[in-house]
Amino acid sequence: MSQLDPLSDVLRSVRLRGSVFFHVSCRDQWSAQAPHSSEMAPVLMPGAEHVIEYHLFLKGEGWVAVDGEPPLRMREGDIVMLPHGDAHVVSSAPGLAPAEQDDWLFRMRDDPKPIPITYRGGMFEAGLGLPPEDASTVILCGFIACDLKPFNPLINALPRLLHLPAEGVGAWVAPMLEQAASESVDRRPGGAALLQRVSEMVFVDGARRYLDSLPEQARGWLGALRDRQVGRAITLMHGDPAEPWTLEELGSRVGLSRSALHERFVTLTGMAPMQYLTSWRMQCGARLLREGRLSAAAIAPEVGYDSEAAFSRAFKRATGQPPGAWRRGQLQSG
Description:
Helix 8 (about 230-240) packs parallel to helix 11 and helix 12 packs across helix 13. The chain folds into two domains: about 5-215, Jelly Rolls; about 220-334, Arc Repressor Mutant, subunit A (Orthogonal Bundle), CATH 1.10.10. The chain has helices spanning about 5-15, 35-45, 105, 155, 175-185, 190-215, 220-225, 230-240, 245-255, 260-270, 275-290, 295-300, 310-320, 325-334, and strands spanning about 15-25, 30-35, 50-60, 60-65, 70-75, 80, 90, 115-120, 125, 135-145, 160-165.
């Protein structure tokens, strides 16, 4: 039985992996455009299923904009994350045309990280940073990879722009990111691992802060976690996915009738409780397959199935592949 809360459970199972950083120096008027993370992932984090980008404003101010959302003003110490990987523009003022960029990322993919970048007067230079005193704005850019399949309810529960104002960000964040970036440039032993772990911690901290900020009646998976009965039902399913849960048993454990739990669960999550249970079992099975220690036959009872055949059928419906083929693909992409 898992001893973790559902948010921690999901964060553990979707394999967060932090990596590449850019150190961006800006002055005068400046504007930078970033493509959708799916276009950058093959270069930055090969094999990643989904990539989240974030920006920490170490110095100065700026704006971040995605299509269909109002521009977001950023101040010194603020962090913004793009959980859905949207293409976006970071600039000194809203509406500025982004500087033209060539295929510099492909040319510099193997350079030591963080890669210095400069934007000034509408121009772009890669591999060159301004002296700190000459830059009006300094931004540290990080990337976090995670899995979306078979089941990752967290990503869809987060907004397109997740703003973490400086006054709410832990005092450890900026110094640790700067230290991690510095150690990576200096190629100190363990610097790459530090860079990775700090990046992951920033995302976890951001997800927790967003959860804490939600209003009482918020919908979605994170809102469901805050609901007394539905959150308890999710915790029970996460705690023991092998248990032969029924709607009646879950309702009894959380103090709701069968129909009331179903209605409330669907209203908050968009999924029926038993559908959620199946999806979570598939995610648990995927994690065990990826770890490689157990056969599909041994995994089946661990996630609530009486036979390997029943588990394999459910897993193929969820992923499009039988467990063995899926495991081989994961090993190859890893």
